[in-house]
Amino acid sequence: MFRKITIIGVGLIGGSLALAIKKRKLADEVWGFFRRESSRKLAERKKIVDKGTRDLKRALSSSDFVILATPVSTIISLAQEMRRMLPPGVLVTDVGSTKVKIVNALQKLFPKYVGSHPLAGSEKRGCNHAVSELFENKITIITPTSRSDKSSVTAVRRFWKHLGCKVISMSPSSHDRILSQISHLPHIA
Fold first, then answer.
1. pTM over 0.85
2. Strand (E) or helix (H) holding 151
């Protein structure tokens, strides 16, 4: 499906993505970008990624799909940093839990960007807890807009389906409204 997928942020979600991609052979290579050397070493030792680096330019080099799996608060700034290093034809998605602000910013930076939010996770953190089955039978919401490249929307939808997800499409604002209401349900009970 892809030659090289780069995951920016290889924690629980990013690490689980890497393992799932490798298990399903969706890419020839899975690279990870890390801020901490200890995390890079752990991910390589556990074979979560094929290669890890703390050099963003090196991580992005020759990638045909980039997944931003960092905390929501860092996605936009990392994307702005990436823009100078990424050719225009690269498919880009994120896994942030809020969409309006991220989608508005990233669709201006990357012509082939489509927002994603897999409704999967754990109370645990870090790539040490990554599992390849995290996304199986889970819902992933993709948030295309009228500006989204149709072939990119199809590719992102297909990617999540190959990971075993049920994929739902909705606008970024609908996503944020619905998810904010759902997140308050435990407090009502």
1. yes
2. helix 150-162
